[in-house]
């Protein structure tokens, strides 16, 4: 006997769903919540891209102003000091490259260091953000990301629509009549009912989340297609869970309680367990030991300041030595020495973070909500792998930045106006890969 629902069964179950007002109330509330989150994420993604475009305009203005300043400034100690200030200013600002699905992971930009700056100072020794002190949990908090909203709310609606289908018929006294009328048994009827609910949930999820991508001027069709596929899989999984619970020999209240327990387990308990497992698989280096190492690097460079300056001049014989070195020529070799000692330490933290993210990603299928959230971050370009790649690119850019600006500081003459137009440029507009 075929279990595939026939056309009459599809029509009957579709009419039955259409006549359930509570189902449409639940779907309507879900749509409203998703639209709210999607509109917020879409505008946030649009603002990020507009700010990235404004960075380019601002950099051009800064270069123009610097050319005018150094054209009027004769070579000498004053020009060297201004070169140092230029090297630690906003001209070396960078921004995390993002992908075509930015709106699906834009909430990560609130917590990630996504706007770093190449500088002649050490980012590892003093990484305090400019401006007044603030609590990021109070100032930068907003709505959860679009995938997180879907992962939290859609399973509840799916289970409410699907988990008690047979129990409801049994408790209303209609199950026997339904068995008599079902020519091919109850399986095709249940499959048709679940099928209609799957299409309703998937269509509603698409309708509620696609505005986030539509508002993002940098969104791509490829990201939208991958997101639609991820939503389809997510909806299918939770509809299937609801169908399996509906088939259990339980009462309606017991089924709803089991559904709630399943939602709590897969949405909260399993992700927490995966994070715990990842931390055991790839433990982070000791933060206390890192603080001690940072302080030791600072103290060591300060103690050997003169020796570091002499070593720098010895390694660059084309630069006339100015000894004893005075600020800022005495300070820059200290920064270079500190970063030589601290960069490997910071990379160990990044490597542990990458291994943890890879481990969680490998087992994320155990939690559909976690898998959907990670998919959104991957499509947005804000996942752990993308961010660590950005940190590596900032390091490489900072090396080029220092190669261009440290010699003019150390020779006590400053950079020329002509050399300013050839400063390294960290390009982030238009593509996440350069």
Which descriptors apply to this entry?
mainly alpha; 0% strand; single chain; 434 residues; elongated; 69% helix
Number of helices: 16
Distance between the termini: 58 Å
Radius of gyration: 29 Å
How many strand segments? 0
Binned strand content: under 5%
Averaging pLDDT over every residue, what do you get? 86
How would you describe the shape?
A: elongated
Could you outline the blueprint of secondary structure elements for this entry?
Layout: H1 7-18, H2 21-71, H3 77-87, H4 136-139, H5 146-162, H6 165-171, H7 175-181, H8 186-215, H9 221-246, H10 252-281, H11 287-303, H12 305-315, H13 332-363, H14 368-380, H15 384-410, H16 417-420
Structure description:
With 434 residues, this protein is mainly alpha-helical. The protein has helices at 7-18, 21-71, 77-87, 136-139, 146-162, 165-171, 175-181, 186-215, 221-246, 252-281, 287-303, 305-315, 332-363, 368-380, 384-410, 417-420. Helix 2 (21-71) runs antiparallel to helix 5 (146-162), helix 9 runs antiparallel to helix 14 and helix 10 (252-281) runs antiparallel to helix 13 (332-363). It is elongated. The model is unreliable at 173-181 and 429-434 (pLDDT under 50).
Briefly summarize what is shown.
The protein is mainly alpha-helical and 434 residues long. It contains 16 helices and no strands.
